[in-house]
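@channel anyone free to eyeball this complex?
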Amino acid sequence: MQNFENKVALVTGASRGIGKAIAELLASQGAKVIGTATSDKGAAAISDYLGSKGKGLALDVTDSDSLQQVIKDIEKEYGSIDILVNNAGITRDNLMMRMKDDEWDAVLNTNLSAVFKVCKAVVRGMMKRRNGRIINISSVVGTTGNPGQVNYCAAKAGLVGFSKAMAKEVAARGITVNCVAPGFIDTDMTKSLNDEQKQAIFDNIPASRLGEPAEIAAAVAFLASDGAAYITGETIHVNGGMAMV
Amino acid sequence: MSTIEERVKKIIVEQLGVKEEEVKPEASFENDLGADSLDTVELVMALEEEFETEIPDEEAEKIKTVQSAIDYVNNHSND
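replying in thread with the prediction:
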């Protein structure tokens, strides 16, 4: 159990799935949590489940201008952000030879470029306070590859390189940047996989089950804790043994 | 009330941990005052705070010496 009293956490894509589990866990351990969703409805759902422990905000992470304004508003209301969890992600699966430019662009924009933008907006406050935790949610398929997901795999592998480079830049300022790479977790995103894809994946999971969102949240909470201060540029794989790297 | 020059120099002394007499107008943050590139970024952040302004990235990159910092603030300050 970590203690996040007096810490402010920003979790993107927090209306459901892994993001929701992360927001709930950080909040239950004392953090004031701001969760973002793309729609007002999603934001309201976040405010609902967080109750007095935080609130939901509608934010399109790919929109630089509204992003900077939202970060400023959060910092004005709650103080500087201590913990940033870049979780928002989308899929637009297609075979590489059939993939449209807009499918490629949408996934790269949301899953990779937006992380750069959010980090850039948030890191200033962390630099000033000589303390900060950034956790980027990557994916096992960024390491192993997965047919039908060249865009998603490229973006998720990109996050690992991004995190390592940023980690080196800001390590001397007490800020850590790490990734958590989930395997196959029981969420709406994996429900959209077809049976053939699921069976192929399932055959390769030594733990013989899907992971729970709470099991990803636990790794995130550890990396966000004071105890993880000396871990940076690292990726923790949480995948039931399906890829040991 | 301190002059802009004095306030800029004070911030440089604080941010870079150098002695006041080292902060000569022609001194380069990275070559003469021992700053690395990230120190310079933080210095610009401190200037933005002190003078309540936002320095665009393309301008910030030109602030490399004590004099260039003073000039920037003189040209853009509301004071």
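from a first look: The domain at 8-236 of chain A is CATH 3.40.50.720 (Rossmann fold).
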